[in-house]
Amino acid sequence: MRRKIVAGNWKMNTTPAEGAELAKAVAAGKKEICDCVNFIVCPPYTHLSEVVRITRGTGVAVGAQDCATEEKGAFTGEVSARMIASLGVEYVILGHSERRQYYGETSETLNRKMRQAYANGLTPIYCVGEKLEEREDGRHFDVVKAQLEEVIYHLTPEQFERLIVAYEPVWAIGTGKTATADQAQEMHAHIRRTLAAKFGATAEQTPILYGGSCKPSNAGELFAKEDVDGGLIGGAALEADSFLQIGKAFLK
Ligand code: PEP
């Protein structure tokens, strides 16, 4: 049985006070939901310490949205994996399409971030996904395969065991357009096959999350698919109620 996971990517939203309220509401609502669904919230760096404190012992885990490529030193503005892990944070999102697109993150950058994440005990949520023109040209499977081969294939088998992958078609992020459940399943199966080609049967256990305008109204259909193990949620994670409803979609 693979883990069922709902992870909220708050992006650059909420003040620390608003984030604390949101974390409290998620933690309170999580109590009503079976432990079989894993909840993760990923607030901005400035909120991490407080959100870890609020969610401790509630079954809600905390992730960061990024980490530095380097261990420490003269890298103004960066936040290291070690700093993040020292707060009690367990996860880190790496390779989000907004980081790839707006901050020029390449596979080379991501290999370095991966190394830092693992060296400090963080579990990466590694994002892959094609742009609209890549799908329209029929290149979506090749693009996602390359994003996996160029980064994930460098992991050791022990590191791979801890990995979470998120498939986020760029054309569906924040646009209100969702991949159909069949499109998601088709790509998730492709991702699992690509991972299995390198890591064998262990890939059967890798949680593969769907991201891209996932909301309470479509989560059930997406999560019912064999290779869709949950969601990485943007906009709908900014309200505790909709985030919790998405988690409950597993239980229907
Ligand atoms: C995301 O950016 O990770 C995401 C899935 O965003 P949204 O749910 O808002 O499309």
UniProtKB/TrEMBL annotation:
Q: Where is the active site?
A: H96, E168
Where mainly found? cytoplasm
Q: Which GO terms describe its molecular function?
A: triose-phosphate isomerase activity
Instruction: Provide the E.C. number(s) assigned to this enzyme.
Output: 5.3.1.1
Q: Where does substrate bind?
A: N9, W10, K11, G174, S213, G234, G235
Protein's cellular compartments: Cytoplasm
Give a GO cellular-component term: cytosol
Reactions mediated catalytically: D-glyceraldehyde 3-phosphate = dihydroxyacetone phosphate
Looking up InterPro entries in the UniProt record yields:
Aldolase_TIM (IPR013785), TIM_sf (IPR035990), TrioseP_Isoase_bac/euk (IPR022896), Triosephosphate_isomerase (IPR000652), Triosephosphate_isomerase_AS (IPR020861)
Q: Which CDD domains match?
A: TIM (cd00311)
Q: Is Isomerase one of the keywords UniProt gives this record? A: yes
Write out the pathway annotation from the protein's UniProt entry: Carbohydrate biosynthesis; gluconeogenesis; Carbohydrate degradation; glycolysis; D-glyceraldehyde 3-phosphate from glycerone phosphate: step 1/1
An example Gene Ontology biological process: glycerol catabolic process
Known partners and oligomeric status: Homodimer.
The text of the family note is: Belongs to the triosephosphate isomerase family.
Q: Which HAMAP family does the UniProt entry name for this protein?
A: TIM_B (MF_00147_B)
Q: What does this protein do?
A: Involved in the gluconeogenesis. Catalyzes stereospecifically the conversion of dihydroxyacetone phosphate (DHAP) to D-glyceraldehyde-3-phosphate (G3P).
Question: Can you say what this protein is called?
Answer: Triosephosphate isomerase
